[in-house]
Amino acid sequence: MDCFGADLRASYDMTGTTQLIIQMRSGDGGRSWEHVGSEPFHTPMNGVNCQAEVALSDGTIVRGVIGTYQPFYDVPQTGYTQWSVDGGRTWDEPTVVMGTDEIVMCPKRLRLLRDGRLAMTGGFWTKGSDTLAAGEGRPIRAALWLSTDRGRRWSDPIPVAPSEADTSQTEKTDFAELADGRLLFVTRCESQEAPRRQSVLVPDGEAYRHESTTPAPFPRGGHPEMLAAREGVALYVATSGISWTADTGETWADLDIGGTEYYPRSVQLGDERIFCVGHRGSDDPYDGSVDQEILGMTFGLNVSD
């Protein structure tokens, strides 16, 4: 089976397993967790959302969902958004991000900008004649979408990099919003020579425009995770290590604390600590043969001039 280019091995096919989207909440910096909602789903893939999810100030949860990962449901076979006002127990009807029959879109990250707008990252590509999958001369374009109404309507896609500069892009891209308003992206690429590329987008009216794309000094891995810390640095968080930059990615330095678990997510807490959560087991099959668990780690930053 092929879900937008993900060629499923028999050991990776999740069909028939018990699958739940679980929402949990912590009020003590990740030390303890309260279960607030669960949602059963069924897919041959290992999930349908949660990477693209954000909580608004009033408690509303907005999520981006990968429609092509849900071949057994009557949902849009492209990227869409939904809202929950009860902690993830129930969700509104889907709203498609890119309303065109010729394009498939995949949401991967949702973030709140400092001005209150929602920003979504992911990728899009042109449909083939007989498949929703990327490829066949239709490369994925990593992109940014903006919303001023809590994700009900989205802007046209803003390319993270010009196609002629990077034809090996994937939908796996994330950014940190810098103090000057620029966005520093790191994108996973299907390239042995440059498995990661970094791009800078600068504010341009109500949108952004591409400023630069260069190779990033990071090895191959899972989905890039970026975090703009309140200390004025941007963090790149990965299983291979955690790195920081204070000059828009011109130079990077590693923190001497090791890496995270697979596909990490991170947030800076009210006490300035960084909390990261990731999955031990990566893409191993869910057959009980390997350790599968979700682990968290915390650390602090000591930034000096």
Succession of helices and strands: EEEEEEEEEEEEEEEEEEEEEEE
Average per-residue pLDDT, rounded, comes to 88
Overall geometry: globular
Number of domains: 1
Tell me what you see in this structure:
The protein is mainly β and 305 residues long. It has no helices and 23 strands. The chain is globular, with a radius of gyration of 19 Å. The strands form seven sheets. Strands 5-6-7-8 form a four-stranded antiparallel β-sheet, with no helix packed on it. Strands 9-10-11-12 form a four-stranded antiparallel β-sheet, with no helix packed on it. A four-stranded antiparallel β-sheet has the order 13-14-15-16, with no helix packed on it. The N terminus is likely disordered.
In short:
The protein is mainly beta. Helices cover 0% and strands 44% of the residues. The protein contains no helices and 23 strands.
Topology:
Elements: E1 2-3, E2 6-7, E3 20-25, E4 34-40, E5 53-55, E6 61-66, E7 79-84, E8 95-96, E9 103-112, E10 118-126, E11 141-147, E12 158-159, E13 169-177, E14 183-189, E15 196-204, E16 207-215, E17 225-228, E18 234-238, E19 241-245, E20 253-254, E21 262-268, E22 274-280, E23 293-299
Antiparallel strand pairs: 1-2, 3-4, 5-6, 6-7, 7-8, 9-10, 10-11, 11-12, 13-14, 14-15, 15-16, 17-18, 18-19, 19-20, 21-22, 22-23
Pick out its properties.
mainly beta; 305 residues; four-stranded antiparallel sheet; globular
